[in-house]
Specification:
Layout (H helix, E strand, L loop, with lengths): L1 H8 L3 H38 L13 E3 L8 H20 L2 H20 L5 H4 L19 H7 L9 H4 L4 H11 L5 H27 L1 H12 L11 H20 L4 H18 L10 H10 L3 H20 L3 H13 L8 H16 L1 H9 L3 H19 L7 H4 L1 H7 L12 H21 E3 L2
Antiparallel strand pairs: 1-2
Length: about 450
């Protein structure tokens, strides 16, 4: 009787064959669309540059310039990638959950640092002190926290580009670190790398809560081994991603509980969301992720508690002298007077998605096409909606390979569609493809970050 029931539920060989052919077809279409998007963005960008447009994209759709520079230093990221490809899926499926999380954090940091070191130690430190751009350059200009916050919007023209483009939180944090003896590029790099690596753990914890441990384990290698790691060791956006990711995860956890701990999670999430809003205005879109989960679970209380805590953070900064809505208004004015004026909206609607797709990698593009797990789509889909909103807002013209890192990490779990009930050799093949794209970009394009 049991045998008959199992046989009745099992797909016939013909059905399995049709399913296999459909999967192959979806994979081919997704890979073709991914490659076509990159080619269009590349050729269109080159044509605009030839016509005299000032895009500040030397390697469309990426910020940087073409510079083919293979070297023996590639052995380090090759070894790191090989480690994840060969043993990552097995370890993720068999080791205790806490070990999986710790391993994912360590592997992400190792992979990101190994990629950056292809350009030597400068590959990590140089992007953090780019002339005219980076936060560290303005640390000496902060006299006291109170005076800095109170005068920030009035004196915004005097700061470097990234300070002008963001709330004052990151510069205030780096200044505070400098005051206690943790200044300079080394500690700033630790902050960025740590933030990006811890963001991976947050994504996996949220995925486990929403979709179950089996899927979270299967997704782990794809969240770790992605081209997005190219911008984890070298940009403040990696730190933003970490703060934002844990804000999302705590609120997701809160929606699944109806006790005092759930309320604590919600308040903690709100405090982190408030901190995130002091790092980047665009991180407000991350609220779509726990919002989607709360809607699915029909839970309003955690959202209210989180919102109250986030507003409390904004209110505290307002008392100190910085009013967030005014900061957003002034930053929008600065943005419209920047290089954004010379970057055509129509082109960057496409180029942004191409750069984002490159950060995700081809395997994740295929995963998105083949993902049928509704629970995973709650997080992945909400992140994609956030990206579309950011893309159409006109406030993201270029540089999204780093700017959208906080969203990219939430799309990477789509790779689970290539891992569950798949042969080990196929999973390793997709992971190797992800690593190969990252290595190709690192070797062929000298990005600014």
């Amino acid at each position: 009787m049991v045998t008959t029931d199992v046989a009745a539920r099992a797909p016939s060989s013909g059905a399995a064959g049709r399913t296999g052919r459909a999967a192959i077809a979806w994979s081919v279409v997704a890979l073709g669309a991914w490659a076509l998007l990159l080619v269009v963005a590349r050729l269109w960008g080159r044509a605009l540059l030839d016509d005299g447009h000032v895009l500040r994209l030397g390697a469309p759709p990426l910020v940087g310039w073409d510079d083919w520079r293979p070297s023996v230093r590639l052995l380090a990221p090759l070894a790191a990638a090989a480690l994840v490809v060969l043993v990552g899926p097995r370890l993720a499926s068999r080791r205790p959950w806490r070990v999986v999380l710790a391993g994912a954090v360590a592997a992400t940091a190792l992979w990101a640092v190994a990629l950056a070191l292809v350009d030597g130690v400068e590959g990590i430190t140089r992007p953090l002190v780019l002339p005219g751009d980076e936060y560290l350059l303005d640390v000496p200009s902060v006299g006291s926290a109170g005076d800095f916050l109170a005068s920030f919007t009035d004196e915004i023209d005097g700061y470097v580009t990234h300070v002008r483009s963001h709330p004052p939180g990151m510069l205030l944090l780096l200044w505070s670190m400098d005051r206690i003896g943790l200044g300079g590029t080394g500690w700033a790099a630790v902050l960025c790398i740590g933030g990006g690596a811890m963001a991976v753990a947050a994504v996996l914890v949220a995925l486990r809560d929403v979709a179950g441990e089996r899927l979270a384990r299967a997704a782990a290698p794809f969240v770790v081994l992605a081209p997005a790691a190219l911008w984890i060791a070298t940009t403040a956006d990696a730190f933003f991603a970490g703060v934002g990711a844990w804000a999302v995860t705590l609120l997701v956890l809160a929606t699944g509980r109806r006790d005092g701990r759930g309320d604590l999670y919600a308040v903690g999430s709100g405090l982190l969301f408030g901190a995130a809003l002091m790092l980047s205005y665009g991180l407000v879109l991350l609220a779509l992720l726990p919002g989607a989960v709360a809607l699915h679970r029909r839970r309003v209380r955690p959202l209210v508690l989180g919102a109250v805590a986030a507003v409390a953070v904004l209110a505290a900064f307002a008392v100190a002298g910085f009013w967030w809505p005014e900061g957003l208004r002034v930053t929008r004015r600065e943005y419209l007077e920047s290089v954004a004026r010379t970057r055509p909206f129509r082109y960057f609607v496409v180029a942004n998605l191409a750069a984002f797709g490159l950060a995700l990698g081809p395997a994740v593009a295929v995963g998105l096409a083949r993902l049928r797990e509704a629970r995973v789509w709650l997080l992945v889909g909400a992140a994609l909606v956030a990206v579309v909103v950011a893309d159409l807002s006109g406030m993201s013209k270029g540089e999204v390979e780093r700017i959208w890192l906080p969203f990219a990490l939430w799309v990477l779990p789509a790779g689970v569609a290539l891992a569950v009930r798949r042969p080990a050799v196929a999973v390793r093949g997709w992971l190797a493809l992800q690593a190969g794209v990252a290595l190709l970009v690192q070797t062929g394009v000298r990005t600014r970050w």
